[in-house]
Amino acid sequence: MTRPFHVALFGLFLALVPTTSPAQLLLTVNKLQKTLSFSGSDTGLPADVGSTVWESNQGGPFNVSDPIASLFDVTGNTIGRRNNLLVYEDGGLEIVLDFEQTTQATLNGNGQTQSYLDLQPESIEILEASNGLVLPSTTGTGWSAITVSVVPEPASAGLLALGALGLLWRRRQNAS
Question: Cα(36)–Cα(151) distance, rounded to whole angstroms?
Fold first, then answer.
């Protein structure tokens, strides 16, 4: 094998390596389709007030999304009326889920998607720039942090393109 082929394989490997552990929730922001989705799972106890909040540092005014409860399958509890993504002007994000009881709940991202075009244009820009942001749980017990992944992420797309170009170049060399 020649060097371009190795570069192509390495680029494909890096583009396909998962970036989060399977025991936590991942919020995926799809910039092309303008949708949100959750994958992974997490188990914890809501706070005494019945809410669980995941948030990055935020301050100032915020913009609230449509309800996001449909993006989860829940066992052991029920998601209540307040279940939104909040986008703050300073770049912070917050996910709020109210639960009907204070019993243990397991959240599973069900892969369904929801448009985020209900947000204001400034909030969409902030959301789409939040790749890699980690939202630790600030209320409740036992919840893991939620990681934000924006796709297509430019670095991964670049590595994938580099790998494809290396494969094409290799084919051309073999055809000669």
Answer: 10
Q: List, for residues 103-114, the tens digit of each pLDDT value.
A: 999 999 999 999
The closest of 156, 161, 159 to 132, measured between CA atoms, is 156
How far the first Cα of the chain sits from its last, in Å, is 16
Phi, psi of 40 (to 5 degrees): 85, -175
CA distances from 131 to 4, 19, 57, 153, 163 (A): 29, 11, 15, 8, 22
Enter the pTM of the model: 0.73
Rounded CA-CA distance 85/71 in Å is 12
Count the Cβ atoms, other than its own, within 10 Å of residue 7. Answer: 18
